Amino acid sequence: MANSLPENILVALPETPEDFAKGKYRVVAAAEARVSAFDRSFHFGDSIYEVARTYNGVFFGLKEHMERMKGSLKLAAFEEMPDFALIERMILDASRQWCKRFGNQDLYARWMVSRGVGDLNINRAISSPPYALVFVKKLDAPTVEDFAKGYHYAIVTRLRNDPRAIDPHMKSGNYINNILALAEARARGAQDGIFLDANHCITEGTTNNVYAIIDGQVVTSRDDAPILEGVTRKWVFAAARAEGIPVVARDLPAAEFAQAAELFMSSSIKEIMPITRLDGSLIAGGKAGALTRKLAQRLKRMIETDCEQRAA
Predict the structure, then answer these.
(1) Under 8 Å CB-to-CB from 291, ≥6 apart: which residues?
(2) How would you classify the pairing of strands 271-278 and 262-267?
């Protein structure tokens, strides 16, 4: 079974939660990575995670992702915070080792904080201290051809979690809501699904934020809607301001969304990508619209400039 794991993924992890508390970890190949069968993330989805990518070897938005993780941990009622400086060191160390082993390429990094190891009791008080794991692999970013083709999305029947249940503002390892939504979308021939809330308004995709171009404006869900406040989402807003395009965050009924002139999504890995089909119907003639292209180009320049400045 171990041989079926990808050989080009490295994992930084401690032997035990106690080792993490002492600042001890090691970087191993995927086939060598092991965690306890009593880990709470395995039994209960009791974990928080983040994802980021590099541009020419520099991580984009790493500080912002760490800040969002802190907020997620608070929403998840973590009583003990992990050592964030140690997590960042694990990310950078694993990335350096990856490039040394496989060559300099842009990377995808995912890091998670588990509440710890326990005895199968749901009570969070019966647990070890929290600890972190880091996963690093080659970045699989969309191509120019992918952008030209765009994505096919479906508005799924499965609703986004109500914030009074599992708050979507928390980037939780409890991902069954997203998994089932994606499965529904794929069964309908789409690549991804878009959730509605209880009022039948658009929220987000399974791993991304979504937007509509309506009357020359970027229209997207309210900040307090059941969505993850994406790190890239804030940069999309900044890119729109730089291009003089108004941004409106409001309730967006599904019917209005479906009639938009253009649709697009954003994420840390994919930046901006056009949605060119919705539930089988063509959007903007089945290609990226003019404002989507303009925003995507502006966002890319802004991100690359930011990373160049960080590297200087």
Answers:
(1) 213, 216, 218, 245, 262
(2) antiparallel
Asked if 204 and 227 count as a contact pair (C-beta separation under 8 A), the reply is: yes
> Which phi-psi region, left, alpha or beta, contains residue 22 (left: φ > 0; alpha: ψ -120 to 50)?
alpha
Total-model pTM: 0.95
Nearest to 69 by CA among 107, 110, 121, 17: 110
Residue 37 is classified by DSSP as T
Residue range 181-234, pLDDT digits in tens: 999 999 999 999 999 999 999 999 999 999 999 999 999 999 999 999 999 999
Taking the C-alpha atoms of residue 150 and residue 208, their distance in angstroms, rounded to an integer, is: 14
Residue 247 token pair:
């941004």
Q: What is d(CA 299, CA 304) in angstroms, rounded to the nearest whole number?
A: 9
Residues forming beta bridges with residue 213, ordered by sequence position: 218, 262
Strands 151-155 and 192-196: parallel
- Rounded CA-CA distance 196/162 in Å is 10
Tell me how far apart the alpha carbons of residues 113 and 156 are, in angstroms, rounded to a whole number: 30
Per-residue pLDDT tens over the stretch 146-163: 999 999 999 999 999 999
